[in-house]
Structures are given as structure tokens and as C-alpha cells.
Amino acid sequence: MQKSPLQIARQGYQPKMPVALQGAVRLVEGEKTHSVADQEEIKKLFPNTYGLPIITMEPMSGKNESEPLNVGVILSGGQAPGGHNVISGLYDGLKALNPKSKLYGFLGGPSGLIDGKYQELTGDIINEYRNTGGFDIIGSGRTKLEETWQFDNGIEVCKQLGIKAIVIIGGDDSNTNACVLAEYYLQKQCGIQVIGCPKTIDGDLKNEMIETSFGFDTACKTYAELIGNIQRDANSAKKYWHFIRLMGRSASHIALECALQSQPNVCLISEEVEAKKMTLNEIVEDIVKVIVNRANAGLNFGTILIPEGLIEFIPAMRVLIQELNDMLANNEEFSSLDGDDAKREYVKSKLTPASCELYRSLPKGIARQLTLDRDPHGNVMVSQIETEKLLIEMVGKRLAVLKANGEYKGKFSALNHFFGYEGRCAMPSNFDADYCYSIGVNATHLIAAGKTGYMSLVRNLTRPAAEWLAGGVPITMMMNMEKRNGKMKPVIQKALVDLNGKPFQYLQAHREEWADPVTSYIYPGPIQYYGPTEVCDQPTRTLLLERGK
Ligand code: FBP
What we know:
By secondary structure, this protein is of the alpha/beta class. The chain is built from 24 helices and 15 strands. The chain has helices at 5-11, 19-22, 39-45, 83-97, 111-115, 123-129, 148-161, 172-187, 216-237, 253-262, 270-275, 280-296, 310-313, 315-328, 332-336, 340-350, 353-361, 364-369, 387-404, 421-424, 430-448, 502-515, 533-536, 541-546, and strands at residues 24-32, 53-60, 70-75, 102-106, 118-120, 163-170, 193-198, 241-246, 266-267, 302-307, 414-419, 454-459, 469-474, 479-484, 487-492.
């Protein structure tokens, strides 16, 4: 297979690791833990994995050795840069413990475990994927591991392969499932451990212990580069307003981080919209003010960042979406209707009057997108809703009214963009390459020590990699009870943007200045892999601000 010069160079990159993982380690157990909330319920549901202690890896002299360990790995959910490095770290870690150890990859996500679809990952295969983006080494999937029959199938498959531990690389839901699986396997005493790894570009799997999920760094840097390029173009051509929607599902971490890196004229934050109970019209009004102000200074261009989950955080929209979710769940009558018009009429006939009015007020295309298929959790797939187009249309209409009244003299010409898939498989930044490899190596020590129900933990991430700390955090510690599909379930608490947190506070303190006619754009440029550390090894601005840097 042909490779670019950078691909070839990256294949030879040796990820930096914390000192604690460079040689032999011993596991030190700390305090017992509690779940973040709902302790009694979580304890009852996880009698075997609740309250486990935090683990720290301490360097020691000598060499770690183990029996040959067979381990299975699963990539779960959306792609995130660095997944291949978790797997190469796992492979190297296992081989260092015992060269007879084997690593199996379950194919196509969690369904690979249930259906017994796997591949042994040999050195040749691993070497092809070191420091590369993507999840194509074994593929990923969104099958939920939650039914007993699935867990039992997993036991059979693991028995056949002599697998002692399963590593699940996933987001909050996949790690919740990892914990349920760990508890079940302990209860069954089948000798299979389960370890989770924190993945998602969305950045919403973080807490007191997990400083960031992997992939967030590279994805944001990729989008920020593109935003910077667009800003340079806007500032050169001086004729377009760019409405840029960014992935991230519910949380606005990606939009916020990209704003901190590129300083656009406007950055919407869904969590703020919800806290202020803003309507769609109020959001439009805020954008219009910035456009009019810049137009008054002769600037008919700019950039606006929009988090992809925005629409769900507008209170009236949330009610409408909830009604649609309930209405469309397993609704064969709706599915059998022929054509968009028939479906639209059906939906209108079932909504409450307030939601019906809102639904009717939306452009037809957006209204249709709201009724598309739901994800396996029953949620609307926000990545398919073109909020940026909705805003362009509404802003355009409002500006036309202002123009007719003589209150706006500018020219509004808008372009829409959606950045999501462009960043999910980017070549991992040094940060993600190092972080992921360390997570993988660290997981092998947890496995060798017989641990289960833990997430592989690497922290102190704003320091140079050598000073990072490694260990394990019990997954039950991150859990609380939440309503899912109408029932209370134990889940890892999702981290939305904290409006009192330093990253948002920074945006708030600077947004007026960024909206101003005086251009404040930053042009971050592409991710750099080779060169000075201040260019190549910086973590995200979010992480730096959160850690007081
Ligand atoms: P995960 O939560 O699985 O990491 O996925 C992240 C994400 O990229 C979201 O930002 C986005 O909304 C979603 O996946 C898109 O899903 P799909 O890959 O199914 O189009």
C-alpha cells in the first residue's frame, strides 16, 4: 500500500510515556470510592464492583512478568483519533509482560464479541496502524451490550480463545456497559475481567479523575485549523458570513474549544442557551445584532460557531423533540406513510398545539430532519440536523425586515459548513498519540493485576508526558441514576460545559471583543508533529484553563 511521507514518518514515532509506565510498576491501592450520586442504588446494582479503591502505578525496579495473557479488545461508537494507539499500547504492554500473550480484536464493535467475530492482532498488523487515525484496524459499531444473552455469548467466545480480559474503548455509554459486563462476569465467576478506556471526540467523558477523553484534542485542532482558514478567507474576500456547525452531540465542548483556539465573531453554547431559557428567535436576534454592528463598520463578513446539539437545548424545541421521540418510537403507522407530505400531516395531527405551532414554523427540510430515524438509545441524531441552515434562513429573514425598515444597510451573504467527520479520523496529535499509547500500556498492568470494572487512567496531562500519572479508576465511581427510555438506569454522568468553569468564563469575558469590528481572529494552522514542544505537544486550551494554566 502506498503511503505519504508523513504516514511513513509517523509509523516510526515512539509515543512518549509517563515515567511510571516506562519500566516495571507496582499497583498501589488508595481510598475506597463512592459513586458521584445515588450511592445506595448504584451499590445495590453493582455489589461486586462498587466502592473499589483508586489505583496508582508506582515505578519500581526489576521487570513485570505474567503468565501468557489473552486479551480481547473492542472499539465502540464513533471514531476518535488515537484508538489505534490504545491498541498498539495494549499489544506492546502484553508482549512485554509475556511474549506468549495474545491480543484479539473483536470486529465491528461490541457485536464482534457477541457473534464471535474476531482477528488475532499480530505484530505485523499492529505496526501498520501505529500512530494512525481511524478505527479501521478492527472496525467499530454501536451495538449496545446490555442483555444477559449477549454477556453469555461473550463468555463462550472468550472461553474458546482463552481470553482473560476484555478492553472496551468507548464513550460514556460504552463504559457504562463495560461496568455492567464486569459486574456480571464477577457474579458468574467466569474469570473474565473488563477494563474501559475513555474515548470520544465530544469531550463529555470527563470528571474529577478523567481529565479528558482521547480524540478531543486532535479533532478540535483539526476543526480549529479549518475555522482559522475560513476566517483568513473571510478576512480576505470580505463578503461571506460563515455559519459553522461542529460535532459534539449534546455537549458544546468542541465548539467552545474551537472558539478558544480561533476567536470567531460568535460562538453559541447550548448549555448557556438552556440556562438562559432562550428561544430560537432570541438566538437569531443575538446573531443579527453582531451582523448589523459589523455591517455598520463596513464589515459584511464573519464566523459563527454552532454546536450540533444546540436545537435540543432550546426549551420549546426540547419539548417538541421529546414529543416526536415518543410519537415515533416503534411507530409502524408513520413508517408506512408514503411521502414527506403525508408524514408531515401525520406528525402535525399528533403534536400538542404549542409543539405543532413550532413544528409548522420550521423550514420544511429541518422539520423533516427532526423525524428521521432515532439512534439505538431512541435519541434524535443531531449530526443530521442542519441547524446552521436553519439559522442562516432565520437570520436572513430578520435582516431583510431590518433592511426594509432602514435599520440595516449591509449585504448578507452566508455559507454553511459542518465539521465532524473531517476530524474523527485525523492522524492523532502528539498529545493523543502519547495519551492513547499510555492508556493502552497502563490497561495491561491493570489486567495483569487481576483488576476488573476499572477505567484505564492517565492524568496530570498539562505536564510533559514523562510526568503524567497512571492508574485505574473504578467505573462505578463515575455513575449516577438517570432516566433512559422511560426507566431509571445506572449511567456514567455526562459532562456538559460548566458555565462556571474557566473555559466558558474565558469565552464570556472575550466574546464582545471577538464580535467587534476589530478583527481578533486567530489562525491556528495545521497540527504539527515535529518541531518545538510549544508547537507540537500542547494540550487543548480547555484542559489548560481547567487546570488553571
Ligand atoms: P461517540 O459518542 O460514540 O464518541 O460519537 C461521537 C460522534 O462523532 C458525535 O459527535 C456525533 O453526533 C455522532 O458521533 C455521529 O454518529 P455517527 O457516527 O453514527 O454518524
